[in-house]
Amino acid sequence: MSTSQPLNSAIPADELSEKLTDPDRSVRNTAALAIGSQFETELADVLVEALWAELDFFVRETMTWSVTRLEEATRPAVLAAVGPDRSPEVRVQALHVISKFANPETVDAVLPYVVDPDEAVARKARWALGRIQEPRAVPHLVALLGEHDLEERNALTSDVAAFGASAVSALVEALGSDDDVVRRHAADILCYIGHPDAESAAEALGAAVQDSETQVALAALMALGELRGEVARQKIEAAREATDPQVRGVAERLATRKPRRAALRTRKTD
């Protein structure tokens, strides 16, 4: 049975390197933890490659922690692993680590993969950008709005909404798209963002309520319903006179609903 030294006693680097491939998961886990704790930067590339090969979830999590802790040393190898010469599994894992870095400097390396031919890689790249939240990535994600299956649409909605206020101007622009599917998706994301970050979109959403496509109008109206400002209230009130009975009915429900408790508390403290 393998034994390991206590973490308060530094383990030599060559020994740690060997233990990363030990058959015993507890030995591998202890080695990975020690590399991060001891800040063994000379083992950066070995650790990264061990992470790609690791099958045990818990050991992989420890290795990810150590790779993230040693970011300056491990980042080049992690970024390189996103490339198409590696397996999809390794590329997805590398993007997961990049999301843990949450470093804006990695955005340019990730952006090309949001449209990767491998859908798992593309989805993870978009997800990683949503975690890094560097605003210059927003236009690249908003450009992907449109026809998707429900799962993909919901994932992209969440990824863009993660940028909060930084995504609003690009989404407002998307409300003017010639593609009604894009317009509806943009409204859905603004609904997801809601108050307070999307308040500046109230005017554009009010205009979208008059869209010739009922589903776009309804999505815009529902987004207004997630806002609390006076402009949003006025746009909802105006929609009660809409010619489309569906829009009119939703506007009526939104206009007559009871104020939320949070909104009431805010008014009392104003």
UniProtKB/TrEMBL annotation:
Gene3D superfamilies: Leucine-rich Repeat Variant. One of its GO terms (molecular function) is oxidoreductase activity. InterPro entries: ARM-like, ARM-type_fold, PBS_lyase_HEAT. It comes from the Bacteria. Residues 256-270 have a biased composition (Basic residues). Residues 1-23, 239-270 are annotated as: Disordered. Signal peptide: none annotated. This is HEAT repeat protein. It comes from Streptomyces sp. ATCC 55365.
